[in-house]
Task: structure prediction
Amino acid sequence: MSRYVAAIDQGTSSSRCILFDRSGEVAGLAQREHAQIHPQAGWVEHDALEILAAVRAVVDEAVAAAGASAADVAAVGITNQRETTVLWERASGAPVANAIVWQDVRTAALVGELADGDVDRLRAVIGLPLSTYFSGPKARWLLDADPALWARAEAGELCFGTIDSWLVWQLTGGPQGGVHVTDATNASRTLLMDLRTLDWSEECLDAIGVPRAMLPEIRSSSEAYGEIQAGTALDGVPIAGILGDQQAALFGQACFAPGEAKNTYGTGCFLLVNTGAEPVASQELLTTVAYKLGDGPPAYALEGSIAVAGAGVRWLRDQLGIIDGADEVEALAASVPDTGDVYVVPAFSGLFAPRWRDDARGAIVALPAFTTKAHIARAMLEASAWQTREVLDAVRNAAGIACDELKVDGGMTANELLMQFQADVLGVPAIRPQVAETTALGAAYAAGLAVGTWSSTDDVRANWREARRWEPRMDAAEVERRYARWRAAVERSLGWSR
Result:
């Protein structure tokens, strides 16, 4: 039996490939960053060809780092930044434009037109509000930006996809027989998929204006889609798992039972709670597919998406210059006992869950004269925890689920100050696993389950091991006092961009 399963983890700022052994331990890893392109305020783009080149490179580098070959790898899983949108030519494989990133807000006017005063007009079908966040309007914007593309799209000459579709198509042959697929988790983020049938909704396609001819086939999250044929060290190995990044982290954290929850602290912050076999409606949260294994039924989740987490620390570094590196923020924040009652609302391009306000903008609220850069740094960290508290409150309201612990992952979980504050404001333990690479690990598990490396999710649960636990210790009344102040600060961030 092959020793490893590989995962391609294509994220907002970098691409990685990681080889895992059967115990879920990392055997080889490689990573490359890619450029963040900002043509104008509120626009965020990636070069899809640069991403593809980086993925090919890290595949080869990770295999070499593990001292492995294709024969040692049973399957490859892919996990990806979910709503980032690519349109490319079926004949040449060339993108028609840069990819539009999930953070991009250029579709605000289009979304307003589509909503016509009711952002929830399609929510009963798709579980989502109409928002700039999702990929369907991004595809429509690209077609509108170049009217010549419309006829080509309707004729099937163009392919639409999120990054998973782009990579699978290119890695399985591209113009020479590439497989044009996505999985149900990524499809559930387009505004175009019926949550119950797991097929493209004609109602939504018509409403948003996306030609069906350019859409990928929706498949499960765990099955063989095609073999890699791209001149890499893993040529001949099947791609057998696809999960959007946050669903992959849920899967890698072994959250398979209703009520089990994880929060990922990356560029943004994403809390997902498994709600079981039926989708749960919410006006504040996203109802989404958690995963679908082969021919089995889908599992669903409620998600609270927070636009800015680690991106806020980068803002402190790059825009304010109060730290030289992200690793300095904890020591700076810990140099003061609290924020001095200062609150930072990092709504740089609007607020996601639970408010969904495109008109919000960043705010620093209640500045006294003694405020220092340390108070600002601490308030930025605390903003991630307060937003997570709002999301978990919304989960309780929608599903009646009271989570008794929160599994945490992502780069910011190395920040002890933040994790302790997170446990304090939630009133439940925050728990970090031994294997920190939960997003990539989830994709590897999905692929490995498809080819028999692991026999069931019981094997995945058996592999999960706790590394660090933070118990709540702040006085509950003090938590509620500060929480009320946080919500008042958020109210002051609203209504600035109309």
Observations:
- Residues 433 and 466 are 4 Å apart (CA to CA).
